[in-house]
Amino acid sequence: MFAVIKTGGKQYRVAANDVLTVEKLSGDAGAKIEFTEVLMVGVGADATIGAPFVEGAIVTAEVVEHGRAKKVIAFKKRRRQNSKRSRGHRQHNTTVRIIDIAAAGGKAKKASKKSEAAAEAAAE
């Protein structure tokens, strides 16, 4: 089973026991974190797609460590002006291990309009 979660403005495809690096999250090493913004959960054709999120789906993770990414250097030079500027940045990040993916309470995939119309006709 896999899930697509949203955190830090990015989307990640995760499965149980995956280790991934995301933007900084609060919590000490060893703390449990729950991702409730689950965009998709399931296996293959049986995957449930949210609109925008799958209701009741939760991905549980454990904080492994906090760290910083490699330095990104922003260097600006104006030619023939004897002018330059160098600036560095290191992004804070958190490494997490996915423990569990719970799709409990998730809605089934939305049926097509044709099958909905057929179901309404049969009900009448």
UniProtKB/TrEMBL annotation:
This protein binds to 23S rRNA in the presence of protein L20. SUPFAM superfamilies: L21p-like (SSF141091). Belongs to the bacterial ribosomal protein bL21 family. Pfam families: Ribosomal_L21p. This is Large ribosomal subunit protein bL21. PANTHER family: 50S RIBOSOMAL PROTEIN L21, LARGE RIBOSOMAL SUBUNIT PROTEIN BL21M. Residues 76-124 are annotated as: Disordered. Keywords: Ribonucleoprotein, Ribosomal protein, RNA-binding, rRNA-binding. One of its GO terms (molecular function) is rRNA binding.
